[in-house]
Amino acid sequence: MSAINPGFSHRAKPLTLNDSAWVRHTLVIISLLTIVLFLILPLATVLIEAFAKGWSTYAASLAEPDALAAMRLTLLVAAITVPLTTVFGVSAAWAIARFEFWGKNLLITLIDLPFSVSPVIAGLIYVLIFGAQGWIGPWLSAHDIKVIFAVPGIVLATLFVTFPFVARELIPLMQEIGHEEEEAALSLGANGWQTFFKITVPNIKWGLLYGVLLCNARAMGEFGAVSVVSGHIRGLTNTLPLHVETSYNEYDFVGAFASASLSAGLAVVTLVVKTVLEWKQKQDLKAARQAAAE
Amino acid sequence: MSITLQHISKQFGAFKALDDINLDIPEGELVALLGPSGCGKTTLLRIIAGLEQADQGDVFLKGDNVTDQPVKNRRIGFVFQHYALFRHMTVFDNIAFGLRVKPRKERPGEAQIKDKVHALLQLVQLDWLHDRFPDQLSGGQRQRIALARALAVEPSVLLLDEPFGALDASVRKDLRLWLRHLHHELNVTSIFVTHDQEEAMEVASQIVVLNHGKIEQKGTPSEIYDQPQSDFVSRFIGQTNVFHIEGDEQHWLKSTGIIVDEPKGTVAHVRPHNIDVEKVTDATNSRVFLKDWQHLGGTIRLELNRDGHNGSGSTIYAEMPNEQFRELALHKGDRVALRIKHAHWFN
């Protein structure tokens, strides 16, 4: 057939089918090897090292006051940043999807900024503003307010790196879904809050959860930005990722890997939930497109 | 007056969507806002609803000035072009929504809500669909559920944006008549937006023709069709033959044998059924011949051309009842004489 109409047969079949089995197998093996080498092996190492001296040592190193303090701080930072990022994300996505205003494109670009700026630079910015030698550092120390090398600085740095996550997920979703259902709710006598919670939130919930999940993973895992502003004070300003580094540098390998295993566990859970949410969100988008097409 | 609009203007950037609209709609009418796309008809509907704010002018509903009232206080029912059913709710919950979001004092009990929703579902003849989700319904069913949902809050005015625009032709025909009958039953003042003149003629009791953000004419379907007050209305409503008396077309008219006794303007609009066609036996007397004809059901449409003019612009359309056409025994190529029974004159 290809002799009669080669153009047709090339277009009709996926390109890979024309490649020999040898090429296909090689590509699959390379991908698998990469995953094993760079993802599964390190994960296994973390677990093996964490349990190298047995279950009790593992549990003991996690129950250590500094480790517990690091976990508490990480949870606290996430508990503050995730809601703030969510509120910001929903507001920004709402504004961008619903209204035409001056500077809209600039806002969209700025939302992406944290993705393109190195987290270390992000941390440094806060040191330059709030640090002892910074712009408002002297005023802050005169009023006995500590930002850098304290919890507020860590929260600020984490906010900076996480704030695009929710907005980025919601903007395309809300643009796709459109405004009609909300207008319908208003015309039926619902007020703004009722419309938001009964109509908007159910329509965007999977995208919203997906954004919150990614944001949470980043908030709990952020190292670079937090490392610059934290000052690594054990038991006070060490988050879980920082605690891993501190412990490792002090040759407390079990402690380091035990804490790391918690982070890795969080990552695996995130990955599984993310896959489910991604699927759910796609269903939402598909439904929105279908509705728009009719 | 159920709806009164005074000096409504709306601008989008440099584009004037609505230009000093004044309109009174009496209680109980079923009004069509008719016009080509971009004429401002949907914008006007949204301004009445409160979904859009006019730059200037006032909106009165039942005598109250609601210009500064948000949509939720206007007691209107709005049916959206794509229905905007809440996709995460069942049909029942969609219709119950307007009752459930009422302030606690006015909110009916769940039992009352249930009765009311089922009554509405019976009104739109879809009670059996109450536990379905919107994506399990056909277009026509969604349309009727959207209408039931809008009626649930007992609106004083019902507004419908292109209510049949997204439906198949056959479903559309049924729903048009159904809407007209439903309106007779409920008698709630209703406005619907359409770009389809046939639809407006068939459904509405009053038609408001809009063009370039202005009202061209307002009246009953018969008034609009029989006494068009502008060139635009005459062309937009139904088919019409346009003869320019000045310039070349005059010759076209004269050479067809159509006698223009006393022109009352420079442009004559003639509906196809206002042209009498007669067969001429002596071919030298007429330069007009039957080019083609189509069967439109009860009537036959004739395409008439003059010798040497084959462009579509120079075709005259005439219509006559079936029987008359049969009696005439006309064939393609036959010579005919034309007589204009009635024309609308414009300048």
Automatic annotation (TrEMBL), chain A:
Membrane topology: Multi-pass membrane protein
Alphabetized UniProt keyword annotations: Membrane, Sulfate transport, Transmembrane, Transmembrane helix, Transport
Principal place of residence: membrane
Keyword match Transmembrane: yes
Gene3D superfamilies linked: MetI-like (1.10.3720.10)
Subunit field text: The complex is composed of two ATP-binding proteins (CysA), two transmembrane proteins (CysT and CysW) and a solute-binding protein (CysP).
Name of this chain's protein: Sulfate ABC transporter permease subunit CysW
Automatic annotation (TrEMBL), chain B:
Pfam families per UniProt: ABC_tran, TOBE_3
Stored PROSITE patterns: ABC_TRANSPORTER_1 (PS00211), ABC_TRANSPORTER_2 (PS50893)
Domain ABC transporter stretches: 3-237
Entry-linked SUPFAM superfamilies: MOP-like, P-loop containing nucleoside triphosphate hydrolases
Top-rank taxon, per record: Bacteria
GO molecular function terms attached to this record: ATP binding
Keyword Nucleotide-binding attached: yes
InterPro entries: AAA+_ATPase (IPR003593), ABC_SmlMolc_Importer (IPR050093), ABC_transporter-like_ATP-bd (IPR003439), ABC_transporter-like_CS (IPR017871), Mo/tungstate-bd_C_term_dom (IPR008995), P-loop_NTPase (IPR027417), Sulph_transpt1 (IPR005666), TOBE-like (IPR024765)
Keywords: ATP-binding, Cell membrane, Membrane, Nucleotide-binding, Sulfate transport, Translocase, Transport
NCBIfam families, A to Z: 3a0106s01
Name used for this protein in its record: Sulfate ABC transporter ATP-binding protein
Organism: Methylomonas rivi
Taxonomic lineage from the root: Bacteria, Pseudomonadati, Pseudomonadota, Gammaproteobacteria, Methylococcales
